Amino acid sequence: MAVSTPEPRSQPWGAPASASAQRLLLLGSGELGREVALEAMRLGLEVVAVDAYGHAPAMQMAHRSHVIDMQEGAQIRQLVEAEQPSWIVPEVEAIATQTLIELEQEGWNVVPTARATRLTMDREGIRRLAAEALKLRTSPYRFAETKAEYHRAITEIGLPCVVKPVMSSSGKGQSVVRNQADSDPAWTYALQGGRGKAQRVIVEGFVPFETEITLLTVRAKDGTYFCPPIGHRQADGDYRESWQPCPLHPDTWVECQRMAQTITDALGGWGLFGVELFIAGAIDQPQTVYFSEVSPRPHDTGMVTMVSQNMSEFELHVRAIAGLPIGEITLSQPGASAVILAPGDSAEPKFTGMAEALTVPTSKLRLFGKPRCHLNRRMGVALALGETIAQARDRAITCASQVQVLL
Ligand code: AMP
What we know:
This protein is an alpha+beta fold and 407 residues long. The chain is 31% helix and 26% strand. Among the domains are: 23-120, Rossmann fold (3-Layer(aba) Sandwich); 140-205, Dna Ligase, domain 1 (2-Layer Sandwich), CATH 3.30.1490; 333-407, D-amino Acid Aminotransferase, Chain A, domain 1, CATH 3.30.470. It is built from 12 helices and 19 strands.
């Protein structure tokens, strides 16, 4: 099921703003896009950052920025025609992917491919590809659009199960149904939390996993590369801390790589992917691996690679996009990340406690510069290394806990 991918775009590039500049159009300007922008600029590329609001994190780093509604295809097309990008790089899922497909057919270069952005923008496309076409193990699942279908789905899947809008991210609209009384509130919550017009949910069997990992997988000109596995902890469907490496049984690690290779080959294109896997069973025996999701772009849990690897996930992404070789990915030391969340809403959030935070050995802070916040919005991340994974996690959490967001 691997798709063939044309050679990466590769031609001489001149300085940003010159006639021969090679331009990267970043659709989405959050904290992940910000790091992609920085890595692209280090290689002398021109960066144009786009989002739905001004002063977004990546815009603060870019050569130029634009505020548009990225779900409006006409606005994306107008911008592409005006900016003439060498690469269109989606950083978020909520984009008019049909327009990306049309632009790609016209010869524009969408990273990794327009089809990959289309399939991964909703849970149904990627779930059907992984489970039905590629036969990767996933939780059992059903899709439902009406209350009757939903109740039938719950009966068929059994309790406990997880209910999610097909189009959502960061845990929005997601809940676990443990008994019959939970089922109606979960339906209402899913419909409220979904993105776009779709009133469609997925009901998934609850996987009692031991751990969950992100396997960063790079499709580059010189081959497919796997970063050491990243373990993470989620709360309310959003990530709170991550660490690298995450110990796995050797057979489990082989299976994880096989699954990541299979799904990324099927998506094709050039770039870095975040393959999310659930690992069930204890580490002293071969564990059962479930495919959960894949992002065709850097992953939030992968921010740890800014300290733990010789090349961060952002550098890897830009290299792969630009047709440059990867060579070797090495882990310098166990590393960890811990998020800094907003405790409420503010039109002018401020940070304090950074001096105390950075007394933690090896720690680093990334504050994203988001101009506004709401409850639990991710405002920054603390990063740290350790002799052991436990030490790195402890340091990252201690560092993050010192930083306060004032509303
Ligand atoms: P998702 O938005 O699908 O990545 O889900 C967010 C988080 O919810 C995951 O990282 C898991 O921690 C948890 N989760 C999602 N689906 C399931 C499932 N089928 N079984 C158990 N936990 C799940």
